Amino acid sequence: MLLTSRSHAEYRAMFDLTDDDLAGVTLDCGGGASSFVAGAGAGGGRALALDPAYAAGADALARRLSRDLDRSRAIGIAGGDRYLWDWYGSPGRHRELRRAAGAEFLVDLRRHPGRYLAGSLPRLPLADAGVDLVLSSHLLFTWADRFDYAWHRAAILEMCRVSRGEVRLFPLVHQGDGAPVDFLDRLRADVEAALGVTSACVRVPFEFQRGADRMLTFVL
């Protein structure tokens, strides 16, 4: 999978985040090279990111990010009809935001390495109820062709374990073709029954991949 950079503004739209939502400690699970944590910190918030890629260190990530941004651009050109540009304005603006987000991430990683934890689902190196809100972007459901139902269930249970408030997941369709994930409803019901939580599919003010305009929330 590519090391993807997304901006703090993209996160706020993808997860329909308000200032109140970010008042506590937020975990970006599968953060990649996104600048969400940097943006949250600059605004006085408290946020952590977790990704197995962080084990490589800042210099290696900088080299990889440059390559992956170019690869991501090529993929976007090849699949241009699968994307909407309303939120970004244009493909050029999209590229600018991604490069700026990647640069902001690298600066923050070097200045505040403690904000970036090396690890991966479905095992998180955090205590029970250690954060207020968990966000996960373009991992669950996006890669349902690689990660099966059991992995998704274990991953969501783990994110619920470390959260004392809410878990939000975006988007809810497959990468590439944007097809629905056939086990989504079964998975929601399973997690609700296992933990006694409530869930909802909520429309958000962001759609880039066609049909990817909803997030799944679990309220603990």
Please, could you describe this protein's structure?
It is globular, with a radius of gyration of 16 Å. Strand 4, helix 5 and strand 5 form a beta-alpha-beta unit. Helix 1 packs across helix 2 (36-42). The protein has one domain: Rossmann fold. It has 6 helices and 7 strands; from the N terminus they run αβαβααββαβαββ. 37% of the residues lie in helices and 18% in strands. The model has no long low-confidence stretch (mean pLDDT 95). It has a 7-stranded mixed sheet. It has helices at residues 8-14, 36-42, 58-78, 91-111, 149-162, 184-195; strands spanning 25-29, 46-50, 116-117, 131-137, 163-170, 198-203, 214-219. It is of the alpha/beta class and 220 residues long.
Summarize the structure.
This is Class I SAM-dependent methyltransferase. The chain is α/β, with parallel strands linked by helices and 220 residues long. Helix content is 37%, strand content 18%.
What would the keywords be for this entry?
6 helices, 220 residues, alpha/beta, Rossmann fold, 7 strands, seven-stranded mixed β-sheet
The CATH class name reads Alpha Beta
In percent, how helical is the residue content?
A: 25-40%
Instruction: List the total number of helices.
Output: 6
Binned strand content: 15-25%
Segments where pLDDT lies below 50 for 5+ residues? none
CATH superfamily: Vaccinia Virus protein VP39
CATH topology: Rossmann fold
Order of secondary-structure elements = HEHEHHEEHEHEE
InterPro entries: SAM-dependent_MTases_sf
Protein name: Class I SAM-dependent methyltransferase
